[in-house]
Amino acid sequence: MSKGDGSPDITVLLRKWGDGNEQARDEVIRAVYDELRAIAHNRLNGGFAEKTLNTTDLVHETYLKLVRSAEVPWASRAHFFAIAARQMRQILVDRARKRSAEKRGGGLDPRTFDESLIRADDPAKNMVEIDRVLGRLAKRNERAAKVVEMRFFVGMTMKEIACVLGSSLATIERDWTMARAWLMRELSESTS
User: What's the pTM?
Assistant: First the structure.
């Protein structure tokens, strides 16, 4: 059950987890914990700073959501991280909504969609706005919205995203280009 380098074959373990094997679930978490921490750390240090949430808390909340996920059986390691991306996004957006609601007025300052967006003055407001616009994109083009989610929220490569979504690399790159342009337009229109 290892790849020959001493590390476990995550895909095999994920499938066993999907079949209800709790030992496999525990092995998966041990095997991917450091990578989940790195993703969470990057999100929190990349501008999604949350005073009440640290890296460990975000990983643990994500783990709890993954354990309860109805999306099992897992197809692959990449699929697992795609679902983890969605769970982290939901956790961060929920907290951002709460923070925005707690502030006076709870108004949003729309920004252009760019990786630098998360370094803005109020990342909680931006997170909520991005999530709102991304939800609209998902209604128009679900695959493109998934590409943004995996790329922006987890930092997956285009090749990894193509693997998860079962599409060609060229298709995923077109989706990314289209989605970025659409999101920038939508965010800039909401400032008018």
Answer: 0.64
| Three-state secondary structure call for residue 121 | coil
Residue 154 near residue 39, CB atoms below 8 Å: yes
The CA–CA distances, whole Å, from 61 to 1, 58, 122 equal 28, 5, 23
Report the C-alpha gap between 136 and 64 in whole angstroms. Answer: 27
Tell me which DSSP letter residue 103 carries: S
The band of 120, judged by pLDDT with boundaries at 50, 70 and 90, is very low
* Residue 115 neighbours by CB distance under 10 Å: 12
Contact 153, 88 (CB under 8 A): yes
What does residue 2 show for φ and ψ, rounded to 5 degrees? Answer: -120, 165
Contact criterion met (CB below 8 Å) for 80 and 16: no
